[in-house]
Amino acid sequence: MIRLEHVSKVFSDGTEAVKDLSLEIAEGEFCVFLGPSGCGKTTSLKMINRLIPITSGQIYIDGVDTQQKNVNELRRDIGYAIQNIGLFPHLTVAQNISTVPMLKHWPRDQQRERARELLELVGMPPETFIDRYPSELSGGQQQRVGVARCLGADPPILLMDEPFGAIDPITRHKLQEEFLKIQERLQKTIAFVTHDIDEAIKMGDTVALMKDGELIQYADPATLLAEPKDRFVRDFVGADRVLKGLRLLRARDVMRTPKLAIQLDESVERAIQILDERDRGWMPALERDGRFIGWIEREDLESASSLAEALTPAVSTAAPRTPLNEALSMMLGSATGAVAVLDDTEQLVGLLSFGAIRDVLAIEDESEDE
Amino acid sequence: MRRLAVPFILAAALIGITAWMTSLGTVGIYRMPSWNEVLVATFQHIQLVLAAEGLAILIGVPIGFVVSRRGLRWIGAPLMALTNIGQTIPTLALLALTSIILGSGFRAAVVGLLVYALLPIVRNTYAGIQSVSPAVKEAAQGMGMSRWQLTSRVELPLARPVVIAGIRTSMVVNVGTAAVAGMIGGIGLGKLITIGISVNVFELVIQGAAPAAALAILLDAALGLFERWMTPRGLRKDAPRVGRQTAKPARGLT
Questions:
Q1: Partner residue facing A135 (CB), from B137, B149, B239
Q2: DSSP per residue over A86-118, as a string?
Q3: Considering only CB atoms, which chain A residues are within 8 Å of B229?
Q4: HSE toward the beta carbon, residue B146, CA cutoff 13 A
Q5: CA distance B43 to B40
Q6: Structurally, what CATH architecture does the domain formed by A252-360 represent?
Q7: What is the per-residue pLDDT across B97-149, written as a single tens digit (0 to 9) for each?
Q8: Which residue of B has its CA nearest to A152?
Q9: DSSP tag of B33
Q10: How many domains are there within chain B?
Q11: Is this prediction's ipTM beyond 0.85?
Q12: Is residue B71's pLDDT more than 80?
């Protein structure tokens, strides 16, 4: 657990980088420091491991004042990753990852074993990469090694300063996903700096939004989006905050159980009958083993000789854990305006429609008005 | 070792020329120095170069390192400017000055050479340490390296190739300057050249100049190998460089 109490930083040129910052990051929590450049988020982060000395206030880690500890020992117990990675170019991947274990005098074979384990964790086959040099890696691979290195001696706390900032969007997206999975397993206490609102919402359990050295709002992403505290927050999260909020919801939260469905080997007449009885324009079509394959639309049935002929194959399908923003864009590309939610065995478990999403958002709107 | 082929052929040719000049015996009324005299002069020359170089390394590396420290960096930049100006002082003028102060001979020559040898070493040491990327240093400190560990495990290994390149440059310049120093002090290969000039015998001048050139080429090749051997594999030029800023160090002759 990290606790900042009335922390301030005034640089020697008189700039007040951080003003009276108090916040607490709970054990195992992923806290994102968010804000425009110059808002003091990086300064705040670096005060935690004392790379920047505090002007006034206290920072406690697990109840112990960080000022009371030996600075190098303090840092060795805190993982640190930065945007420019800062891998040691003269050392191999293994030696880079083992930096802190080496500083802590772990036995040599244990260091190597740990490096192997961490490479595995960040998705880089150890046999290929362990003895390479940083110059032999791509940008994304270097950043993976950077993440592995900050986990080197298994510190309970990680400080990460825009660790995915300098890589291309596709790789960044992938690394974010992977890192979230790692965090799910490791449950580290993380302070993470970014200026990217999307990254903050995606990664953070909580978001500390800062401006001009002051903490403006400290809340979980859903609250930040739904109840921006003031104009600055509202502007910073963007006019599309409702859309951004969709990312926080998953398909399983909104999907409805399908009431209708037809197997593809049924007759066309049967399909017409079912649809007309319920006055529906379409329904999902299933294989005999229950796997979802597409849609049957009423208008296609008149001229069709079999259901297979009338079938409109589904362009994309969602999984229960698909974020709603992705589901929504699938919906926009879907012939019926609906998206099928399938489980791992491709069985239809739910349907997503505009109506369902609107209902959820309407509820959230009401709660905002209250 | 293809990279050594050219220096070896050149050096062999120069030694051949020396042998040829020596074999002439006499040119006009002048007796050419014997093999023995040429070897003694070459040995003196090497002594002069190594003494000056050794002192320059002992003094230059610590100075370059110290002025690259954060607290002393305000000295660093002006000092580097000064070393650049220093290198424009005519060799002859400086050597004349030292021999006036210290009297002609080995000591004066060493001191004069030292001043020239010092400059590339100080400058490259400074540049080498400055070239270590701030991100690398920040990461090192952030992970809990002490000041000393940062220096010994990160800064010095990363600066090492640049420092050695400086020593290499300095050594080659040194061999040439030592010839001039010898002219004034009457020692080494410079002595042969001076005699040649004063009696206006071309062959005598060549007999002194060719071994000096061979010496420079061989020393440069040897140091080139040493430089490569001392460069960590991750920093070798055949691999793309990462994590270092572009440094502007003086490079050895290649």
A1: B239
A2: ---TTS-HHHHHTHHHHHTT--HHHHHHHHHHH
A3: none
A4: 7
A5: 5
A6: Roll (3.10)
A7: 887 887 777 888 888 888 888 889 999 999 999 999 999 999 999 999 999 99
A8: B143
A9: P
A10: 1
A11: no
A12: no
